Amino acid sequence: MLGLRQNLAQFLLLVAVNALVGGTLGQERTVLPLLASQTFHLGLYTSALTYILAFGLSKAAMNYFAGTLSDRYGRKPVLVAGWLVAIPIPLMLIFGPTWAWIVAANVLLGTSQGLTWSTTVIMKMDLVGPRQRGLAMGLNEAAGYLGVAVTALATGYLASAYGLRPAPFLLGAAYIALGLGLSVLRVRETHHHARAEASQHVNAHDQAHAGLTTKEIFTLTSFKDRSLSSVSQAGMVNNLNDGLAWGLFPVLFAGAGLSLHQIGILAAVYPAVWGAGQLFTGAASDRWGRKWFITAGMLVQAVGLAVVAGGDTFAIWLVAAVLLGLGTAMVYPTLLAAIGDVAHPTWRARSVGIYRLWRDGGFAVGALLSGLIADLYGIPAAIGAVAALTALSGLVVALRMRGNDHTTT
């Protein structure tokens, strides 16, 4: 049966699993930019951001394959495979003698995140059905990014107390072991729920598109469908600015004389507000619709980035981190729910994977764009440019996305 109440135990288990997925990513948020500059002495921002480029490209590719593989082989095998890929990552981050090892670890991290996070999204959509999709995505993304935030804060403390290596990455190793164990022993397959929903679909537009090939789904999601393509570009720009925040914010803060503890707080506040906010924004978009939540969220993000670019104190940057987290909370679950609204259940997993391909490709674009601008003109200029791009993305959604692609309106 479809519905949150009917599948509550399995849903909550998947929420916990995604918190561990987020924690595995969060082990890097505070420490790795400082590791690049202080341990490996990488001077150019573009060089230091190679790990985000590697992460973004591998995660984007795996997002695409995760949807296709989960349709073909089931959701659970893909989830377990993602955890297996993650096993070597903490060891490579701890013992890597050169920067190439760190980049290679981030290829594995992106691969793992693409398989695990994509699959938890798809499985929750399978379980809840159409009417609570925004709530489901809000809970999923809240768990993941609160996991990022708590771990970023914890690793900042561990790094200040015990050094940049190995202590912060031991936490990631524990998350991977627990996530793998839960996924193997407790998580159940959900693909049959999607088939049940597909059998109940009566929307004429969806039925006309029920038998699309993967190539046709890619074209529809990326370019042809006004709503799906609007969501895809907004997701890409959202993660473009997140890649900027991940790679350059700690360097900017350290250059301004902030302590490692203060940098850890700022690195945690942004995903913490982002994570907690999604507990409310996902469900609110179920009630009020997706389009204007996405537009407003992109504009709030742009304001937050502009405040970072113009700021020079911990207090100002703390306000900016809250704004950036709030804007992202408005956007993140709503984008995923919007994909679920439009895509037919028989190819929803593939459409989610294609959307996440574009979205997480934003990490790679953000690493290259912000690194090049920072090398040429400084970090504030890079942040200002991305702020303008984020505002433009919000306007594209306002002008292009249909306003009636919402299951409960």
UniProtKB/TrEMBL annotation:
<protein>
    <submittedName>
        <fullName>Predicted arabinose efflux permease, MFS family</fullName>
    </submittedName>
</protein>
<dbReference type="InterPro" id="IPR011701">
    <property type="entry name" value="MFS"/>
</dbReference>
<dbReference type="GO" id="GO:0022857">
    <property type="term" value="F:transmembrane transporter activity"/>
</dbReference>
<feature type="transmembrane region" description="Helical">
    <location>
        <begin position="101"/>
        <end position="122"/>
    </location>
</feature>
<feature type="transmembrane region" description="Helical">
    <location>
        <begin position="315"/>
        <end position="336"/>
    </location>
</feature>
<feature type="transmembrane region" description="Helical">
    <location>
        <begin position="292"/>
        <end position="309"/>
    </location>
</feature>
<keyword id="KW-0472">Membrane</keyword>
<dbReference type="InterPro" id="IPR050171">
    <property type="entry name" value="MFS_Transporters"/>
</dbReference>
<feature type="transmembrane region" description="Helical">
    <location>
        <begin position="42"/>
        <end position="66"/>
    </location>
</feature>
<feature type="transmembrane region" description="Helical">
    <location>
        <begin position="169"/>
        <end position="187"/>
    </location>
</feature>
<keyword id="KW-0813">Transport</keyword>
<feature type="transmembrane region" description="Helical">
    <location>
        <begin position="379"/>
        <end position="399"/>
    </location>
</feature>
<keyword id="KW-1133">Transmembrane helix</keyword>
<dbReference type="Pfam" id="PF07690">
    <property type="entry name" value="MFS_1"/>
</dbReference>
<dbReference type="InterPro" id="IPR005829">
    <property type="entry name" value="Sugar_transporter_CS"/>
</dbReference>
<dbReference type="InterPro" id="IPR036259">
    <property type="entry name" value="MFS_trans_sf"/>
</dbReference>
<feature type="transmembrane region" description="Helical">
    <location>
        <begin position="78"/>
        <end position="95"/>
    </location>
</feature>
<keyword id="KW-0812">Transmembrane</keyword>
<keyword id="KW-1003">Cell membrane</keyword>
<feature type="domain" description="Major facilitator superfamily (MFS) profile">
    <location>
        <begin position="2"/>
        <end position="402"/>
    </location>
</feature>
<feature type="transmembrane region" description="Helical">
    <location>
        <begin position="143"/>
        <end position="163"/>
    </location>
</feature>
<dbReference type="GO" id="GO:0005886">
    <property type="term" value="C:plasma membrane"/>
</dbReference>
<dbReference type="InterPro" id="IPR020846">
    <property type="entry name" value="MFS_dom"/>
</dbReference>
